[in-house]
Amino acid sequence: MSWQPYAARPDSTVTGTLLQWEGVADEHHAARTLLAWLPPSYAAEPGRRYPAVYFHDGQNVFDAATGFSGEWGADETLTRLAQEGLEAVAVGIPNGGERRFHEYSAAPTPELPDLGGGGADDYVAFLSETVKPLVDGSLRTLPGPDSTVVIGSSMGGLVSLHALLTRPDVFGHAGVMSPAFWTAPVEAFTRVQTSPTPTGRIWLDIGGREGPGEPERQRAYWQDAHAMRDLLLDKGMGERLRFVADPQGTHHESAWAERLPGALRFLLGEE
Questions:
Q1: Domain extents in the chain
Q2: What InterPro entries does this protein's entry cite (predicted)?
Q3: pLDDT of residue 236
Q4: Structural class in CATH, domain 4-267
Q5: Backbone angles phi, psi at 77, to 5 degrees
Q6: Within 13 Å, how many C-alpha atoms sit on residue 2's CB side?
Q7: Best CA proximity match to 65, nearest among 75, 56, 55
Q8: pLDDT tens, 198-225?
Q9: pLDDT given for residue 55 in this prediction
């Protein structure tokens, strides 16, 4: 197996060079097709190495044709950021479909008993021991944690923070977008309280309209994110935490795409 050109569809929206590696799996995770986007200078500067950004829900990161509700436009955003001199390899790890909630959650959710839960440690191990070694061994990345970002939204935001806290030897910075802390508030907040303060950067954001038609859920998203901000500041994150709250922000790829440029500038150390 190896990297191959991305199998674009007629309605694909990919910008730049996107590769795919089929059949990536481990004992806990069914085979899935890993995606890797290369920065514009990659081919022209063969001696250069790049930081890497690992995105959850990889189906939604680069291509609207595969996204289940749009795309993040990470390829377009990184193309624009390259014009500012900020370049990175971007890796999309597709979710496990019906197992998505289980993979991204560190603990079962009483409100959602049919979705399972508690698979976050196994998923972070999959990233750390299968996905990242494959990427570092085949692409010109800077492999250290200082040059490695993990980012996601909703449940992907939770597992990004979980990865930063449990494997700081692998992931140095985390993008925690629209985190669904309501699914496991005790686990999430206890984990932060009892873990060493991260030495890298955390981008944490939230919208005021995260749960359309569900006022209680909207309040939970909003209040939990602000409470996590306060906890991280109490832990001493200081300027290594960037918190963005958008009262009009929705729980949708379009909202995360809008906030992604600022998140990547901060997480990659340019702001």
A1: 4-267
A2: AB_hydrolase_fold, Esterase-like, Mycobacterial_A85_antigen
A3: 98
A4: alpha beta
A5: -60, -45
A6: 3
A7: 75
A8: 999 999 999 999 987 789 999 999 999 9
A9: 98
Nearest to 158 by CA among 225, 69, 209, 216: 225
C-alpha closest to that of 55 among 183, 151, 171: 151
β strands within 102-201, DSSP E: 148-153, 173-177
Dist. CA 163–CA 170, nearest whole Å: 8
C-alpha 242/C-alpha 121 separation (Å) is: 25
Would you say the pTM of this structure is higher than 0.90? yes
Q: Beta 89-92 vs 29-38: how paired, if at all? A: antiparallel
Helices (H), 88-130: 100-104, 120-126
Tell me the pLDDT band of 115, cut-offs 50, 70 and 90.
low
SS3 state of residue 144? coil
Q: Tokens 């200078």 label which residue?
A: 41
Radius of gyration of the chain, Cα coordinates, nearest whole angstrom: 17
Strand pairing partners for 176? 152, 204
Closest CA to 11 of 76, 70, 78, 83: 70
What residue type is 119 in one-letter code? G
The residues with which 202 forms a beta bridge, in sequence order, are: 174, 241
Q: Which amino acid is at 2?
A: S
Q: How far apart are CA 101 and CA 105, in angstroms?
A: 6
CA distance 232 to 109: 23
CA angle 256, 257, 261 (to 5 degrees): 105
